[in-house]
Amino acid sequence: MTELELRQKAVAQFKKWLGFSEADGRYRKIVDLYNAIRPVPVGYVLQYSDEWCAATVSAVGQALGMTDVILPECSCPRMIELYDERGRWIEDDAYVPQIGDIIMYDWQDTGAGNNRGNPDHVGMVAAVNGTTLTIIEGNNGNAVAYRTLQINGRYIRGYCLPDYASKATSSPGTAGDASEWSQEAREWAVSVGLFQGAGTLPDGTPDYQWQRQPTREELVTVLHRFYHLFSAK
């Protein structure tokens, strides 16, 4: 599994809890999962009456067997300390987060100067679209819910960076690489003109860049070709 796939897996696990709330009692499953971590972080058993945002992030690691990557804590300040000790805490305003990164907030941020305040809340980056972040959080209005913010926006204290790469068992292929399971579909797409090469590989064959993520512009071009190829048939 690649680093990107691990990041996606962490976000997918978090999304399974969307809607879990104090009102319906399902948040207790998250608290219980956090309390199943061994050893219990700082020896403290989280109570149902405690704030549970950091515990939810930590529970993602517990659910996936990745507590060595998503470092467990139920306190935002102590979570920062854990990542800082490993060189995985960043406060650089120029940093562009990736999905799976952990975002810390300070609700007392005045918006003036560099925020050095005490962190109040935490979530996980679920999507990055241009300059907009979509974050999934536990204990957001007493529930697991989304929040949207601008990159480098007010209230962002910094980011804890789980070392997903250390857990990866494979590396992403080069742009021209492709897996065997997709061979039939790839050959068909090329034969009907649905895909065209983007330059050539060192051996002179077309570079279809099978492993690269498509842009929306490229996606709509493929759909346009598909429509015109088959609408007349």
UniProtKB/TrEMBL annotation:
Q: Which residues form the SLH domain?
A: 169-233
Q: Which residues cross the membrane?
A: none
Report keywords, A-Z. Repeat
PROSITE patterns the UniProt entry points to? SLH (PS51272)
Q: Which organism is it from?
A: Candidatus Avoscillospira stercorigallinarum
Query: Is Translocase found in the keyword set?
Result: no
Indicate what this protein is called per its UniProt record: CHAP domain-containing protein
